[in-house]
Design goal:
single chain, 372 residues, alpha/beta
């Protein structure tokens, strides 16, 4: 029998723009079905007039401190400067400055450019970077701060209040997606109960999802689902910020890395599964499927909705009326009979679901396991 992947039977929504294919591939290798709805768009570096203006400001006058916040951003900045004919002059200015890197990726990009980094925070956080700068004294210094997709107003303001001149370098900027339709389709799938987890790799994407839900008139409904039914995973604390502010619990990996995010999903999502012993079989309810004695068996939405209600009853009888209420789109009582028939077929063992004449249906659980 083929081993069932940890995410087989689950559907995961991916909101990333950059590296979405990489994250999707990691999840699919673990068995997940992936729905992609990019929540943001990145403004191309060579076309960004703001970055060109900031680069010119830096090459015209010496700079004392350079703060590199992301590897891809720092590399893109150097490449864009080279395209504008300013690469050599920029590296000369940066090479004469004290360079601080927020984390290992930023540090790697600094070194790849032939520069030497002076310090990097263990936490990889902007807060620790800022604290280090303020404690070391910044009055009278000219500091270049490479942004990471969105402004850092508190960071820059704190440096200016301490007496520094700050040049903000917007190496890339986030905007809403060029085509909002894929994101709207993803959110509709979440609202329809067809998505088991949402993965976020940036704070702007998280904020964009919430803005889009507001624009669709579904904000409260979405937040309620993300609080209760859908596992929300963010790559780190900064990414989780807009979601946490909306009261949404966010699971985070120990390390803020793409691979760690996929591994966290592969642990946290199966941990939420319902496991039962029915008619002598070991059953695990996953998002859009069940695992019966180690075999993955897909289940359509209507019979899965019925199964979840029966599983919650833990062997007690559930009336046709209550099962009808759980069906997507409702219907008449014969719809329940149809769903039960399809459920028995999907499970591969009709005896798992018992008909109780004139009362309803129940799962064939052992008497010791039946809820009272």
């Amino acid at each position: 029998m083929t081993e069932v992947g940890p995410l087989a039977g689950y559907t995961v929504g991916v909101t990333a723009a950059r590296r979405a294919d990489e994250l999707s591939a990691l999840l699919e290798r673990k068995g997940a079905t992936v729905l992609h709805g990019p929540a943001i768009r990145i403004v191309p570096l060579p076309d960004d007039a703001e970055l060109l203006a900031a680069t010119r400001r830096l090459v015209e006058q010496p700079v004392d401190v350079v703060v590199a916040t992301t590897g891809i951003g720092f590399r893109g900045w150097v490449e864009a400067a080279e395209g504008w004919g300013l690469g050599a002059r920029l590296l000369t200015r940066l090479g004469a400055a004290r360079v601080l890197a927020r984390g290992p990726k930023a540090r790697g990009a600094v070194r790849a450019a032939g520069l030497v980094d002076a310090w990097s925070p263990e936490s990889e956080s902007n807060a620790e970077l800022l604290d280090h700068l303020l404690r070391s004294g910044v009055a009278g210094l000219r500091i270049a701060v490479q942004l990471h997709g969105e402004p850092l107003p508190d960071f820059a303001a704190a440096l200016r209040e301490a007496g520094a001149e700050v040049v903000e370098v917007p190496v890339y900027r986030w905007t809403g997606p060029a085509d909002p339709a894929p994101l709207e389709r993803l959110l509709e799938a979440v609202l329809a109960g067809q998505v088991d987890a949402l993965a976020f790799t940036s704070a702007p994407a998280a904020a964009s999802v919430l803005r889009t839900a507001r624009a669709m008139g579904r904000f409260d409904e979405l937040v309620a689902l993300l609080k209760r039914d859908v596992l929300v995973v963010g790559v780190g604390a900064i990414t989780a910020g807009p979601l946490v502010a909306a009261g949404i619990p966010v699971t985070q990996p120990v390390r803020a890395r793409m691979g760690a995010l996929a591994r966290e999903l592969a642990v946290a999502l199966p941990a939420r599964a319902t496991r039962l012993r029915i008619a002598g079989r070991e059953i695990e309810l996953r998002g859009q499927a069940v695992v019966v004695d180690g075999e993955l068996r897909p289940v359509a939405p209507a019979p899965m909705a019925v199964l979840r209600v029966l599983a919650a009853a833990r062997g007690r009888v559930v009336s046709r009326r209550d099962l009808l209420a759980a069906l997507p789109g409702g219907g008449e009582e014969h719809a329940v009979e149809t769903a039960i028939g399809r459920l028995r077929t999907a499970l591969g063992e009709p005896r798992m679901v018992t008909t109780v004449v004139k009362r309803g249906y129940r799962l064939a659980m052992e008497p010791s396991e039946v809820a009272v």
